[in-house]
Design a protein that fits this description.
By secondary structure, the protein is mainly alpha-helical. The protein has helices at 2-24, 31-39, 43-72, 82-104.
């Protein structure tokens, strides 16, 4: 009798735990601060958005680069280091962020009138 109750009790407990975890993780805690940062036009929010939108392109590109490095060995195994890959990914997205910021807001010239009072 106890042999048939034990699997049923395990299944009920498992599904109950999954339901509780689903309920707890329904609201993403990062979304509210991220929305506020987007409203302020924060560079960190732009960086996170860029990461979310273009991550697969960068991941596939770096995977191809690492595969080519393994085959040809042009970096001497340096590109196969996790630290180097993390630095490379961060620099790609920071470079994109800085490039986009410099193109979006050209500096005002000295003789031009300021129309934003």
């Amino acid at each position: 009798m106890s042999l048939t109750i034990l699997p049923a009790l395990f299944a009920v407990t498992l599904f109950l735990c999954m339901a509780v975890l689903l309920h707890l993780t329904r609201k993403k805690l990062i979304e509210e601060p991220l929305q506020q940062a987007r409203a302020r036009r924060s560079p960190i929010a732009a960086f996170v958005d860029d990461l979310q939108h273009h991550r697969w392109i960068v991941i596939i590109g770096l995977a191809l680069l690492v595969a080519l490095d393994k085959h040809f060995g042009f970096s001497g195994g340096l590109l196969q280091s996790r630290l180097v890959l993390a630095i490379l990914i961060t620099s790609i997205f920071l470079g994109r962020l800085l490039l986009r910021r410099s193109q979006a807001a050209p500096p005002p010239t000295a003789g031009s009138p300021n129309l934003n009072h």
